[in-house]
Amino acid sequence: MKKAFGIMSALLILVLVSFLLMLVLKVASISSKHVGDTYLKSQAILFMQSSIENSILAIEGYERNSSNKCLKHINFISSDGKFESNTTVLRYYCYDMNKCPCPNAVKIDTPQSHGNVVLYTIVNTTNSDRNKGYKIRIEKVTIQKP
Known about the structure:
The chain is of the alpha+beta class. The protein has one domain (2-144). Helix content is 41%, strand content 25%. It is built from one helix and five strands, in the order H-E-E-E-E-E. The chain has one helix at 2-61, and strands spanning 73-77, 83-94, 105-107, 117-125, 137-144. The radius of gyration is 28 Å and the shape is rod-shaped. The mean pLDDT is 85.
């Protein structure tokens, strides 16, 4: 009778220990995925800020005239191929409408705000193998002065 009780208690201890080890492994895998997601998201936010600044530079360097109109869409891909950015110029705010032949231009009353633009930027992860299945999509609407 004592031998059977010893075997039962040993099996119970083995089951409890294996359950605890499985629980530890599950928590470790969740933690690892969370760290990867956080790192990728912080990279995406930094890439978004960079693409907004590059969009402002593209708007400043764009030659506006009656035939070209204004810049509407700007696309960037990160140098490592992880992210792509699509920026749309929603509004141009112009004091003098003759200098701004844009269909999406809005006339304003103060010359201090002349040239402001409203940008809608979307950053997505690409389908590269470097992302390891993580999908990130960040959207931001911002007003900038080129």
